[in-house]
């Protein structure tokens, strides 16, 4: 599975509606409203690199109010939750 972190600039007055539209798309697992240079961050998960083109410029960028995106493709995922689960196998709490 390929994970992309998509930083999104939007029309500020439409952030909630735009976030909901993005979150409803297939392959988008989460959308965060954030402070800073960007307004939203979307987590996109696809089986193949080619699928990123369909989701990001093909769907996200075409949502009315999306002004621009900056995409970062993850090499590896490190998660405290995943590490705790791996070391807890077979142990009772």
Question: What's a quick, concise take on this entry?
Answer:
By secondary structure, the protein is an alpha+beta fold. The chain is built from three helices and four strands. 19% of the residues are buried.
What layout of secondary structure does this protein have?
Elements (H helix, E strand, L loop, with lengths): L1 E9 L4 H9 L4 E6 L6 E7 L2 H7 L10 E8 L6 H8 L6
Antiparallel strand pairs: 1-3, 1-4, 2-3
Distance between the termini: 31 Å
Number of strands: 4
Distinct helical segment count: 3
Q: Residue share in helices?
A: 25-40%
Radius of gyration: 16 Å
The CATH class is: Alpha Beta
Domain Transcription regulator AsnC/Lrp ligand binding: 6-77
Pfam families: AsnC_trans_reg (PF01037)
Protein name: Transcriptional regulator
InterPro entries: Dimeric_a/b-barrel, Tscrpt_reg_AsnC/Lrp_C
Walk me through this protein's architecture.
The chain has 93 residues and is an alpha+beta fold. The protein has one domain: Alpha-Beta Plaits, CATH 3.30.70. The protein is built from three helices and four strands, in the order βαββαβα. The chain has helices at residues 15-23, 49-55, 80-87, and strands at residues 2-10, 28-33, 40-46, 66-73. The chain has a four-stranded antiparallel beta sheet. A hairpin with a 6-residue loop joins β2 and β3. It is globular. The mean pLDDT is 90.
